[in-house]
Amino acid sequence: MRIIITALAATLAAATSASAQSPGISGDVVKIGVLNDRSSFQSDLAGVGSEVAARIAAAEVGNKVLGKPVEIIAADMQNKPDVATSIARSWFDTDGVDMIADNQLSSAALAVQELAKQRGKITISVSSATTRLNGDSCSPTGFKWSYDTHSAAAATASAVVKQGGKDWFFLTSDYTFGHTLEEQTSKVVVDLGGRVLGAARHPMGSSDFGSYLLTAQASGAKIIGLANGGTDTINSVKQGREFGLTAGGDVSFAGLAMFITDIHGIGLEAAQGMLLSTSFYWDRDEKSREFAKKFAAEMGRMPTMVHAGVYSGVRHYLRAVEAAGTDDGPTVAAKMKELPVDDLTIQGARIPQNGRVFHDMYLVRVKKPEESTGPWDYYDVIATIPAKDAFLSFEESGCKL
Amino acid sequence: MLDVLNISMPMLFGQLTLGLINGAFYALLSLGLAVIFGLLNVVNFVHGTQYMLGALFAWMLLHYLGIPYWGALLLAPVGVGLVGAVIEVTLLRRLYSVDHLYGMLLTFGLVLIIEGFFRWLYGASGMPYSNPLPGGTNLGFMFAPNYRLWVVVFSVAVCFGVWYLIERTKLGSYLRAAIERPDLVQAFGINVPRMITLTYAFGAALAGLAGVLAAPIYQVNPLMGSNLIIVVFAVVVIGGMGSIMGAIVTGFGLGIIEGLTKMIYSEASNTIIFVIMAIVLLIKPAGLFGSQK
């Protein structure tokens, strides 16, 4: 009997010391889940491209951290919050996923971030845009890369107002995202001395915008702020051109949440002259082109700011795991906030306590067809928007951490 | 009344005109659906996808072969009609003897497969298609894009033509007879199965035609049909399943009602059609122009 107990104790001691010595990688693998819409109308701006971006980041560290493999899995949440949370739950509880990247659709992202917080896991939200992720619903393990509703509002609106576009009308998608965007942008416009003359709130997935454009025109507004997304934005711009609103240069559209894939879909003919803000443009510098080249080799098209954000987020996460010596969520999260973000798309950005990465944004103007050398040569970068102007500071965010 | 709602007369006329334009699309789409349902008793869920195919074929013709809009207006519907014929001959034909539900399930499955395929091929953001009739006409109360005026005129002509073909010509009478008593019509030496194939192909081609008309206005996108098909079904139900005149009149009428809703309370613009549908079904279950069988 005594022999058995001694042996047991020895085994136990050995097991304990072994786990203390080896780097703490749960399940001997660093597992990253890319969760987004891969099938419905938001699938181009994120979708499979985000998974590819995550793989590019993993390949930069040889698909290994602390001697353990990095595994990337992906799932389609079909743009539905209930699907997103049930996938996240099974990833955390049974599949040993350590971090969820991209985390699309604001309503879904908030739920998944909360779940991750309870489980001590990390989320790196990119395509979801609500500032609540780092505001009243912030989490110690929740991070946000790329644009958000505040950057879309503050950066674009202030730039447009400064250029003389003072009278605004909004085409707003009738749900959380659109309302937040309209509200935040209106505030910026009014603060800078502009006026908001009205708004048309349309159901998501409308195909005809003629009526709204007519209302906008009747209001006398000079700037139509597009607080909608995806196909709705594309159709608004396309039809604005058709109704002669933008042809004479009398009225301009301000794209608040637009991606390069949207411009590709609209075509330069209709989109030319639009002002937008973006956290990434592939043709901005040598490094951004290097990332875009790797991405295009896989996808056959250029990355959006979401793809760049997923790449940067995953890259930074892996660096933090390496530095922390573990994949334990809260420990890695603390390390992520300690280290500067440094990769092909973002250089030297810091992350405050609420997890909102402080990187620069860029104000771009869509090129005229004759200025473009071919597909994806769409933007002129006309200004760099410093992070402090683009994003809410930790104090302003309303995050209590 | 108008003053209370803060609406000016030019604004009202503008919205009415726009509603008429949108109604033209509804009419054209529900017309094809009504033809297929009325003559074949098939609930053609794949109709929205056939509309999408029309727009997509127009884009492909331009992009790969350099054939402009006016050529596509003829060729793309023919292409969609051919796809329709293949669907009818290889799949749909086997289901005429069983419950309607099977046809609906089959066509719904086709929607998922075809849309999924093109989404995989081209992505979800869609492709640009430039406007063949840029510019517009000042109607006094509004700036009417030339292209949309063309859409209204052309759709009205097509709708009337189809109604005339089916209700007033000899060919139309054969068709209606073949549906009622296929055995008898066959006995007169008419090839009924071929006639049915052609009818389905024709209905699909109408959807394809609407798709080509839509390409310069709406985004050409693999999912464009699924946004519209539910509304179009509501139009057909309100008009009376299978009633050709019903589909046309309801299509235009609902376009106008929807346009007015957009002006007065835009949040409800999608819902209003279904509210009307519910009311019509309560009062007249067979639809406004439908007859109880």
UniProtKB/TrEMBL annotation, chain A:
Keywords, alphabetical: Amino-acid transport, Signal, Transport
Signal peptide: 1-20
Domain Leucine-binding protein: start-end pairs: 30-367
Transmembrane segments: none
Gene3D superfamilies: 3.40.50.2300
InterPro entries per record: BCAA_transport (IPR051010), Leu-bd (IPR028081), Peripla_BP_I (IPR028082)
GO biological process: amino acid transport
Superkingdom field: Bacteria
Similarity field: Belongs to the leucine-binding protein family.
PANTHER family membership: LEUCINE-SPECIFIC-BINDING PROTEIN (PTHR30483), PERIPLASMIC BINDING PROTEIN OF ABC TRANSPORTER FOR NATURAL AMINO ACIDS (PTHR30483:SF6)
Protein name (database record): ABC transporter substrate-binding protein
